[in-house]
Amino acid sequence: MTSGPPPTDRYRAVFRVLFGVLLLNIAVALAKLALGYGTGAVSVISDGFHSLTDSASNIIGMVGLRASRKPPDEDHPYGHRKYETLAAAGIFIFLLFVVIEVARAAFDRLSGGHVPEVGTLSFAVMIGTLAINLFVVRYESGRGRALKSELLLADAMHTKSDVFTSCAVIVSLVAVWSGYPVLDPIGGLVIAVFIARTGWEIARDTSRVLSDRVVLAEDDIRDVVMSVPEVAGCHQIRSRGSADHTFLDLHVWFAPDMTLYEAHRLSHVVKDRLLATYPQIADAIIHLEPPPGQV
Fold this sequence. Notes:
The protein is mainly alpha-helical. The chain is built from eight helices and three strands, in the order H-H-H-H-H-H-H-E-E-H-E. 42% of the residues are buried.
């Protein structure tokens, strides 16, 4: 009893969102890097690399999304949806590298003593890119929830870290402009902390899917199953997968004198109610058996 793959329109919608966000992230990254190298502000350069990592994660996401569109085959009977989860995990890898780069640049600047140039253009660029990031986070998070895409939600979380880091950079620029240049590399270290926290959250969420953590509460599934009057009980309820692509299997009890035909028909009633309650279920396997002790 297997339901069909998710609608193709869902993949196309997610891909369009990622591509639009990619273009915005590239524009933001280039603006920050140009400003950072032009003024010598390590906090701005670090933030620019962070934004560039956003672009790389968008590309990873699109590659993973295309792979996840493949239907189940002989080698992948459960489909290819974990490629999307792996793509989300790839974002964490990029974040790890950017944390190392940001921290290195900050410590180098602390020992170098270079004073960056800060002017009106610096604040204009940072405030403008901050506004773009706020739009991206709101748009991508909204579409991620609407499309039930863990990839879009993970990518939005990544971009959200850009909002915090941009705010930290603006504070650093104000400090430099006020005569405290040492706060520029310190701002870079603050950025590293924000990035590291975001990376940990993404790693935590993707590891739950890759380790087959329970997705649906057992008691909730039991309530749906027991809503069919002829069902005597159920046990061994197991679920795994992602929030929008879940696999479920369970054992359902029927009266021992019930015909196989009738038990099979009622199992479809159970399945239909489960799918109606949880449309994210991609595959539900129901094992028929009599109640314990009534064989």
